[in-house]
Amino acid sequence: MTNFKMYLGKGIKISFGSDCGVPFLKQGDNALELVMFVELGMSPMAAIVAATKTAAEAIGYGDKVGTIEEGKFADIIMVDGNPLDDISILSEVEKIKMVMKDGNVVITR
Description:
Strand order of the largest sheet: 1-2-3
Structural class: alpha+beta
Number of domains: 1
Oligomer: single chain
Radius of gyration: 14 Å
CATH topology: Urease, subunit C, domain 1
Largest sheet: 3 strands, antiparallel
CATH class: Mainly Beta
Number of strands: 3
Strand content: 5-15%
CATH architecture: Roll
Distance between the termini: 36 Å
Shape: globular
Helix content: 25-40%
Number of helices: 3
Order of helices and strands: HHHEEE
């Protein structure tokens, strides 16, 4: 956690990841990483960017995913609430109202 704060303070890009589990973050609970990023000092918007744009760039897919732009896959969720006010909304399944995958709505609640 100390390194995270140091890198954040130096303006180094930090990316969201899901390649392995750690004791405090089980596989499948990836959205809780957003909460952890914010608790460690990142703004909610910066945490969302780390999980989308920066993560896509880190794996060489920035031209296909990571931002909402023409020509990119439209993988989007709609939640009940504003994650900029409370980032934990993104980790609460019951708050997810719509899921769009590649431009097609696959879940609505």
